Amino acid sequence: MALKYSILDLATIVKGDDIHTTFNKSVKSAQLAEKLGYTRYWFSEHHNFPNVASAATSILIGHIASQTKTLRVGSGGIMLPNHSTLSVAEQFGTLDGLYPSRIDMGLGRAPGTDMLTASALRGNNFNPNYNFEFHIRELQKYMSNENSEAKVRAIPGEGADVPIYILGSSTDSAFLAAKLGLPYAFAAHFAPSQLEVALEIYREHFQPSEFLQEPYVLVCINIIAGETVDEAHYLSTSHFQAFVNILTDQRQPLSPPDETELADISDEIAVHLNRMAAKTFVGDQETLKEKLGKFVKDYKPDEIIVSGNIYDFDKKQRSYEIASEVIKSL
């Protein structure tokens, strides 16, 4: 079966753009993705980041779905501890009613922000010992037809055709996805260190379910593609600066390449940066074909999710084009 390819969009705010412009760029990227044969277009829930505009994830999913025709649109992911499972079921049930058989629900257990903001989001429901499995099962109950006789029902949501994906970057999420018999999306685009062992655990311990009979692995990686290797590396400096900003808690919009300061980082930050960027692939079409071919051979994903920050919007669109051409050729 041909390797599928999809996009993770954080609705990244670049220097000089406002929120409206940022969302318009996401629409254009999704429309291009649809033309290029990408399978799905996901947004990830983040809060209190001046460079990320995907906080109200379900609203953004609906907007993108309304501007496309066949592309699957969903969350990569909804940070479930920030919400009641009933409200998530209702939101995604509504999306499914509006855009039948096109909505995905990826679920994560991280806060998608700092702990102070997470506390503000959750209020009295803040719980450091959150039981992710329990709440996933509760969400599945609300969305099942079997809940029709319950006193509390998700309307819309009950019976909705919205597949659930477990997101993670650790062995804990791998064990859980395997136990629940759900597809597993690994966040190698920012936390690649446990990728190999997590995929081994997921595949070895996978238990078939009513939702999925065999393991299904999605791996999110960064791809920065250019017409030449030199151009790709130049474009990638914005992406690496964004990583450095995370490591140093410098929250700001995405910088253009000429304003990056990578030469000034400390040795300690450089070590962490190299770890974070271990699954960031930079190059022209020929170089990427070689690098991604090895990646696919080593990890055998069923689907690659493409991420990556590029300041110049036209160059970012072209990067998506090159990435699709490369992946289709593997």
UniProtKB/TrEMBL annotation:
CDD domains: Flavin_utilizing_monoxygenases. One of its GO terms (cellular component) is cytosol. Residues 22-295 form the Luciferase-like domain. GO terms for molecular function: oxidoreductase activity, acting on paired donors, with incorporation or reduction of molecular oxygen. To bacterial alkanal monooxygenase alpha and beta chains. PANTHER family: LUCIFERASE-LIKE MONOOXYGENASE. This is Luciferase-like monooxygenase.
